[in-house]
Amino acid sequence: MRILGINALYHDPAAALIVDGRIVAAAEEERFSRRKHGKRPVPFAAWELPELSAAWCLQQAGVRPADLDAVTYSFDPALWLPPDQLAVFDPWDELRQRYALAAADFLATALPGLDPSQVRYLPHHVAHAASAGLAAPFAGDCAVLVLDGRGERHSSLAGLYAQGELHILHSQQLPHSLGLLYEDATEHLGFLRSSDEFKVMALASYGTPRFLENLRPLVHACPDGGFRTQGVDWNCLAKKRHPDEPWTAEHADLAASLQAVLEEVLLELARWLRNRTGSSRLALAGGVALNCVANSRLWRESGFAEVWVQPAAGDAGTALGAAIAGSWQLGEPVAAMPGADLGRQWSDSELEVLLRTAKLPYDRPPDIAATAAETLAADGIVAWFQGRSEYGPRALGHRSLMAHPGRPANLERLNDVKGREQFRPVAPMVLASRASELFSGGPLPSPYMLFVHQVDERWRQRIPAVVHVDGTARIQTVDPVTEPLLARLLADFDRRTGLPVVVNTSLNTAGRPMVDSPRDALECFGSTPVDLLAIGPFAVRRSRLGAGQ
User: Fold this and answer.
1) Whole-structure pTM over 0.90, yes or no?
2) Is 80 exceeded by the pLDDT of residue 546?
3) Which of 143, 191, 294, 527 could form a disulfide with 196 if both were Cys (CB 3.0 to 4.6 A apart)?
4) Closest by alpha carbon to 74, among 14, 136, 163?
5) pLDDT tens-digit profile of 83-105?
6) From start to end of 44-182, where are the E strands?
7) What one-character-per-residue DSSP string does 8-41 give?
8) Which residues contact 286 (CB under 8 A, 6 or more apart)?
9) In this predicted structure, what is the pLDDT of residue 91?
10) The pLDDT value given to residue 40
């Protein structure tokens, strides 16, 4: 059975492929097109068909479009409601419906040989739910909670997966939406909506939730498993910030208040779901599930023994969910998600050809992990390009920018390299076997960087570059079984410095998608003050540039 999943509405177009019950490929279109979130100038802002990523998924598995048993599209135009019934004004909604209705023909044009009759529709939030509940590593049934900006007519889904079947217990009708609420505040605070919400989460740690009492009557959970979010006038709480203006304490307090009320509502929803299902396991998806601070509070306080978050929790993940759900619908269960490294990779020989073509001086050290560790120990910055690229927004040691965590200045240094705001934290990558010595208050292991942990007081002064202003860190644990090269780097760095941690942030610069191809890596290396590019087994060193071949 060969099932292709597609996301091509709102933002983050992506494709994913299931073959014989196994996830073989998944990728976001932005990694190919180099347009972040798949956005083009209006009026084509969010409707980029994932032609390149879909074609790559098929090529990766040696599958022709004509061989596909189904193509599942993560949006159901039959659920669309006219604006006068939906109560959410969006001038593009009718055009979205027409676009989705024509998806079969668009896809057949993009993938010659595809039978348009193979294209089927799946509700947006059901696709999100499948990406979590049917991809989680749980052995058995689980509760599932989806929260985002919006789907066809809803903004959330709460349910239970039992023997592969989804039982929907509640769906929140628009206009009430926690995701849209967070987007509105993001825009009010001077950031890009539906893109920069993570900046608001980071800014919240610099403030106090002094507007929480103002928000609670307007944003709250309901006894039926839903919530209300109407009536918030952000101007009454804090002055709107222009993107070019510096943020103030008032803006940080607004962010902190928003974060606090979001966490309170999520806790109530999760507890309601726990009581309704009796399940001890919770799987999360939707853009709100990328809020790692809220995720950690759910893990601690919701009553669920296990909480798993889809690494590609945003709309890109609905492509995977659509493929998984499509496979189950055709009678073939799908194995748990093997990891987030589901994207493109290049062989050593291919990489070497590209380096020679670029006429860059390079060498092949005995162990690239040891070479990178040596550079990091000497306080150099390393661009790390290894294996298959990550699916989702987090760099997880395949397309990463690394630095020494013991140098306080490295936070500002990396933010300068990437062109980011200085209030933004960077994350620690830590050996799984050592994580409990340094971090607490969140689940361990934590391989996808989707929870925050408290940094032990004894370690805060030793790894200051990765400690956020509130004493937390968004960690990634590294298992030598699944990530042997990365684990070797960490072990070697630990041997040299006594620190089992390195700084990890995504290999890209502000406003650009994460590096995906060797060409992207070389362009990023050429335009930033990075000391070493570790690309496959090869080392490209800044000190040797201009020294000839």
Assistant:
1) yes
2) no
3) 191
4) 14
5) 666 666 677 778 888 889 999 99
6) 70-73, 119-121, 142-147, 154-162, 165-173
7) -SSS--EEEEEETTEEEEEEETHHHH--GGG--S
8) 125, 128, 146, 147, 148, 156, 179, 313, 314
9) 72
10) 53
Distance (Å, whole) CA 419 – CA 414? 8
Buried b (16+ CB within 10 A) or exposed e, 359-393: ebebeeeeebbbbbbbbbbeebbbbbbbbbbbbbb
Is the Cβ–Cβ distance between 77 and 101 less than 8 Å? Answer: yes
Q: Which two tokens stand for residue 228?
A: 């209300």
507 is written with which tokens?
A: 């290999």
> Which domains can be identified in the chain, with CATH numbers?
2-125+316-329 (3.30.420.40), 136-309 (3.30.420.40), 348-544 (3.90.870.20)
Sign of the CA dihedral running 112, 114, 116, 119: negative
Residue with tokens 């041997």: 495
Specify the DSSP element, H or E, that contains 348: helix 348-357
Q: Write out pLDDT tens, residues 238-277.
A: 999 999 999 999 999 999 999 999 999 999 999 999 999 9
Which residue reads 């919770």 in tokens? 282
Q: In what order do the strands lie in the sheet with 14-19?
A: 22-28, 14-19, 2-7, 70-73, 119-121
Split at pLDDT 50, 70, 90, the class of 549 is very low
The tokens describing 379, both together, are 């306080």
Whether a cis peptide bond, with omega within 30° of 0, leads into 445 is yes
Give the pair of three-digit tokens for residue 68: 């596909």
Tokens representing residue 232 in the block: 């918030």
Residues 6+ apart with CB under 8 A from 433: none
Q: What is the mean pLDDT of residues 45-63?
A: 90
Quote the tokens at residue 415.
């933010």
User: Closest Cα partner for 209 from 260, 172, 138?
Assistant: 260
- Angstrom distance (rounded) from CA 353 to CA 357: 6
